Each structure stands twice: as structure tokens, then as C-alpha cells.
Amino acid sequence: MLLAGGWGAMGGWGCRGPGAAQGRLQRFSYAELHMGTVFQLTLYAASEAAANQASELAFERIAQIDARLSDYHPRSELRLLEAHPAGQPLRVSEDLWEVVRSAQALARATGGAFDITVRPAVELWRQVRRTRRLPGCEEVERVLQRVDYRQVQLGIGGRSITLKRPGLRLDLGGIAKGYAADQALGVLRRSGIRRAMVAAGGDIAAGDPPPGRFGWRIGIDSLDAGSEGVQARVWLKNAAISTSGDTEQYVEIGGKRYSHIVDPRTGWGLERRTGVTVVGGKAIQTDSLATALSVLGPERGMEWIGGKRGVSARWVTMEADGVRCWRSAGYPAPGIPGESGDPAMDAQARKA
Ligand code: ADP
Ligand code: MG
Questions:
Q1: What pLDDT does 222 receive?
Q2: Which in 35, 161, 176, 299 has the greatest CB count within 10 A?
Q3: Model pTM greater than 0.85?
């Protein structure tokens, strides 16, 4: 869980109004419910009218993306794609194309730890959460037959997608919120508002920092929600951060916790209690990576991320003998001042 902002009171639910004046620029904050989560825009603008107009456009853009990518809306473009005859390409919107293309690249890079065809398994675990009954082997195997990212084919040289096998169900829940946050930030920027941040639950896209500040201060919640409160802070500008973890959605059966994140290779909800934070350039990337790195776990995840430029990650796991932490090189990210970064920069950022 991410707690965004941090200077003065954040605008509450549906709040529209000026914050503290900062020279000519004033702080505004807006919140709306989209994609099953609260999207919060925080921005600095010269006037309330400019802030209201830009935020309205940003929310409209988020709603448009949701209408295309949702697995919930019966007439979403994603649902149309699922209903399209297997083996036949369908020309898709730029949004669906971008998200599926990015998801497929990560699926290939992680050997299927991230897999948007995972939806039948995700639904199985939703049912487990309701019934509190663990699935049998056959049930899991039946579901796994419908999970395979290689059955999703991208058109060469065109914006088309082919589902190679009938009955595939797609789930963009591990990537769409990050993409929507990036796009909303882009809308604000094109409206002339560069000092802005978009938070979509555990996914945040940050633009230029607040006036006179080093970056946007983001608090990262503890894995064990409620016990320790905010565990760490990072300062972010023109970058993105995401968290994934089992703090909110899990089912506990027989003393074991099963997460809403599923390992697509086993069909099983993650059992190891892990919280992952990823910092990178774009939220589409950090959102999906946080899910993938949850599946890979810290040991294999550290190996995977080693040497990759522009992204870094931190894991917190709950082991039998206590909490353990892992940080990849450069976490939160080179050039972004944070608590684990350069000490001099940290001190400066804290003062700012
Ligand atoms: P949250 O939605 O709680 O922020 P994540 O960003 O980690 O959490 O995304 C979890 C969602 O991603 C799940 O609710 C499900 O829709 C989807 N998902 C679960 N497991 C995987 C996976 N291995 N690969 C891709 N998507 C997944
Ligand atoms: Mg995510």
C-alpha cells in the first residue's frame, strides 16, 4: 500500500479545492473511483478553473481506458476480444494494444510469472476466498489448461491481437491501473500542468515535483498492515512506484494465507507473505513488475532484476522467524533521492 503526498492534509474523498498557496501555484487534490480503486490526482495549478478542467479531462481518460480494458464491463473491448473467434486477428485500440504488448513482453521476460491469461485461476481463487475451501488438484489442472500467455499473439506490423485458443480469459488487473495512471498524468501535462501526481491505489505516476520540493514524498506501508504503520519513504519525480502485497486481499485456510496474486505456472495463490515495491520510469512497468516480482519471490526476483537499468525493487517477506527485507541495487532508483539513496541527498530531501 502506498500513501501519497505528505504535505498538509490531502484532499479527502471527492474534495475539490485549493491547497496552500505556493507562489502563483496552488495545490489541488481530486479523487474518483475507477477500476475498483480510488484514483487520486494531486496537482499544482495557477487557478482553480485550470485545475478543475485538467482533472476532469484526466478522469475522462481513465474512464475511457477502463471501458476498454475492464474484464468486468460486459461490453469492454477486452470482452469483445475474448468473444472474437479463436485464430482470427482483431484490430484493437491503441490502449488495449499498448497494455497487451507490454504484458506479453513481461510474460516472455519472466517465463510466464506474469501472465494475463491467468484469469481462470484468479477466479478460482476468488471462489476459494468466498467458500474458504481449497481446490483439488483436478480443479487446478483444469483451470491451468486455459492459462498460457503464448496463446495470445500480437499482429506483426499492425495493431491486432489473435487469441489462438477458444475459451481464453484475460485479466489486465495487474497492469491496467499503472497504464491509466501514466495516461492521466500525460493528460495533465498536455493541459499545461506538469507538477502533478496520479495515485491509483498501489500504483503512482509522478511528474515534476511540488514547487520548491525535491520530489513527491511517498510512504510505503508495512507488510503487516496496522502493526507498524508507514515503513519507508521515497521521494519521486518523473517516475513511478507500485506496490503489490497480500496486505489486503488474501484468504487464510488452515493457518496458511493465499494471495490474490496467482502463480500462473502452478495455478496456486501465492502462499509466502511478500510485499514488493518497484520504482521505475512508468507506472505500466512498475505495476506489472510488482506483480511479477511477487510471483518470482525475492531470491529469483533479485537475480532477474540485477543489471536491469531504470528499475529497482524491494521485497519484504514474513518468515517464521520474523520479517526479512531485500533491496535490489540502487533502490529506490539511481538519481531519485530516497531513504536508501545517497546520504547527502537524503538529508536534503528530508529538509525540503
Ligand atoms: P492490486 O490489484 O491489489 O494492486 P496487483 O497490481 O499485484 O495488485 O495485481 C493483482 C491482480 O493482477 C490480481 O487481482 C489479478 O487480477 C491479476 N493477477 C494475479 N496474478 C497474476 C499474474 N501472475 N500475472 C498477471 N496478473 C495477475
Ligand atoms: Mg500491480
A1: 62
A2: 176
A3: yes
Identify the CA nearest to 223 among candidates 268, 277, 293, 169. Answer: 277
Task: Identify whether the C-beta of residue 263 lies closer than 8 Å to the C-beta of residue 255.
Answer: no
Q: How far, in Å, CA of 170 to CA of 147, rounded?
A: 9
The alpha helices in the chain, defined as continuous H runs, are 48-69, 77-83, 94-109, 119-131, 137-144, 176-190, 283-305, 343-351
Stretches in the chain below the pLDDT threshold 50: 5-22, 225-227, 334-335, 337-343, 345, 349, 352
Ligand 1 probe mutation, 260, 270, 296, most atoms within 8 A of CB:
260
pLDDT tens across 89-109, in order?
A: 999 999 999 999 999 999 999
The closest residue, in CA terms, to atom 24 on ligand 1 is 114
Residue 311 CA to ligand 2 centre (angstroms): 14
Cβ pair 31, 12 in contact under 8 A: yes
- Cβ < 6 A, ligand 1 pocket: 114-116, 118, 122, 171, 173-174, 201-202, 244, 249, 260-262, 264, 287, 290-291, 295
CA of 197 to the centre of ligand 1 (A): 23
The ligand whose atoms approach the alpha carbon of 116 most closely is: 1
